[in-house]
Amino acid sequence: MKTHRIICPDDWHLHLRDGAVLRAVIEASSSWCRRAIIMPNLVPPVTSTADAEAYRQRIKAADTAGSGFTPLMVLYLTEQTDPADVVAGFQAGIVTAVKLYPAGATTNSASGVRDMRAVWPVLEAMQTHNIPLLIHGEVTDPEIDIFDREAVFIDKVLIPLRAQFPKLKIVLEHITTAQAADYVLSAGEYQAATVTPHHLLINRNAYLAGGIKPHYYCLPVAKRETHRQALVAALMKDSGKLFLGTDSAPHIDSAKLQPCGCAGIFNAPNTMACLAQLFENHHHLDRLEAFCSRYGPAFYGLDVNTQTLVLSRHDTAQPVPEAVMTDEGQITAFDPQMDIYWSVAGIE
Ligand code: DOR
Ligand code: ZN
Question: What angle do CA 104, 105, 111 make, to 5 degrees?
């Protein structure tokens, strides 16, 4: 069996939730990544440095395996966010970034931002102190087709925001379109984006063709195949501006399999196997490490990890990981609908 070694990855966009779900899912990430940007859309959201510190402690306590996994905490931006609290949290090493959810764009985004001007003082302080802004880039206008909401966001919100704050570090999260890839690659050094495994592997047929498939429903929704191909092509260009953010977003199956089911794909259990397969299929296994382990730390101004992740290449296709069981019910893992010959052997 062949192995492939890379610098241990990080996950620059992860939902761990809280309580029983947190305790059940953390190992699916800590088994392959050393640090993760932890999304703050809990109920209620993580809006202050004090909230972030309390949540960080709960995550550390849930890591019973003592894996050494480091959560990087994020504040949920609201129109009431205090710039001084953001700066103090960042300077104290508690807060790594701030997340902008347009109000109503996705799961638990009701406390998000309606009027961008209301948060300009926070963004001004973040630009001054080099604090990254992470953006869920979709407009919420019900008149805009859901397949166009990311592209419209770039034109209507992101480009004007960038003009207002030219040196603000911005990560456009979980990009799904050719327009987003083009924008990020052509924007300057203060602009980057995360890409999820699922948006690199599935298109909209996954949840719409042959019956409605809630386990493939996430936000932003996966687009048509040409967009998936554009994301893969952008990734293979090795620009240094795209890095791994899984957006692994666990929901209990009973919350997804509903007339109005939750958005989110739980991919943490097979992220690295899927990505190794994708890069191998494109004859660029050599570029896996940069995407998963180098470009993210470089943008955030952090050192790369010192440990190594060992991946195994099997001769036969490997089974899709089981669902994870929690005290609240089962969470089904992502099935990429393709043969995967890779698995994680461990961290050295
Ligand atoms: O699919 C998604 N799930 N997209 C998001 O933006 C939020 C996330 C969640 O929290 O479940
Ligand atoms: Zn997310």
Answer: 45
CATH number, residue 71: 3.20.20.140
- What domain range is 101 assigned to? 2-347
Q: Which residues line ligand 1 (CB under 6 A)?
A: 15, 41, 106-107, 136, 218-219, 247, 249, 262-264
Instruction: Give the Cα separation of 116 and 12 in Å (integer).
Output: 24
Ligand 2 center to 3 CA (angstroms): 31
Q: pLDDT, tens digit, for every residue of 131-145?
A: 999 999 999 999 999
pTM for this predicted structure: 0.97
Q: How many domains does the chain have?
A: 1
In the chain, the amino acid numbered 98 is V
Contact residues for 233 (Cβ-Cβ < 8 A; gap 6+): 181
For residue 109, which of 244, 219, 223, 257 has the smallest C-alpha distance?
219
pLDDT in tens, 20-57: 999 999 999 999 999 999 999 999 999 999 999 999 99
- Taking CA atoms, 150 is separated from 58, 186, 303, in Å, by 33, 17, 31
